[in-house]
Amino acid sequence: MDKDDNQEKGETEDIRSCDPPSVDPNLSTETDNCSKAECQNNSGDQPSTDPEQAPTENGHEDSGEFVVTMLARGKLEEQGVGMMGSCPPLSITGTSEGAPTHRDEDVMAESWRQHRKHVFVLSEAGKPIYSRYGSEEALSSTMGVMMALVSFVQSSDNTIRSVYSDGHTVVFMQKGPLVLVSVSSSRQSEQQLRGELLYVYYQIVSMLTQASITRIFENKKNYDLRRLLAGSEKILDGLLNLVDSDPSFLLAAVHCLPLASSLRDSLSQILQKAITPNLVFSILIAKNQLLTIVQEKTVIEDARLEPADVHLLLNLIGASSAFQAGEIWTPICLPLFNPDCYFYAYISYLDPPECTVCLLLLSTDKEAFYAVAECKRRIEEAMLTQSSLSLIAKAHCYSVSQVGVSDLRHFMYKPFDIPDHHKQLTQFTSPEMEAPYSTEEERRRLLDLYRHMHGRIHSSSRPLKLIYHVAERETLLAWVTSKFELYTCFSPLVTKACAINAITKLLRWIKKEEDRLFIRYPPKYSTTPNPSKTHDKNE
Amino acid sequence: MASGMQEKLYNPSLLSFFVYNPSFGPREGEEEKKILFYHPSDVEKNEKIRNVGLCEAIVQFTRTFCPTKPAKSLHTQKNRQFFFEAEDSFWIVMVVRNPWVEKTNKDGKPPTIEYQEEEILVRLILFIFLSNISTALLFNGTFVRAMETGGVELLMQKLEKFFYRYLQTLHLQSCDLLDVFGGIAFFPLDKMTYLKIQSFVNRVEESLSLIKYTTFLYNDQLIWSGLEQDDMRILYKYLTTSLFPRHSEPELAGRDSPLRPEVAGNLLHYGRFLTGPANIKDPEAKFRFPRIFVNTKDSYEELHLIVYKAMSAAVCFMISASMELTREFCEQLDSLVGPQLTLLASDICEQYNVNRRISGPEKEPQFKFIYFNHMNLAEKSTIHMRKTASVSLTSVHPDLMKILGDINCDFARVDEDEEIIVKAMTDYWVVGKKSDQRELYVILNQKNANLIEVNEEVKRLCATQFNNIFFLD
Question: How far is B108 from chain A (nearest CA, A)?
Answer without folding.
Answer: 23
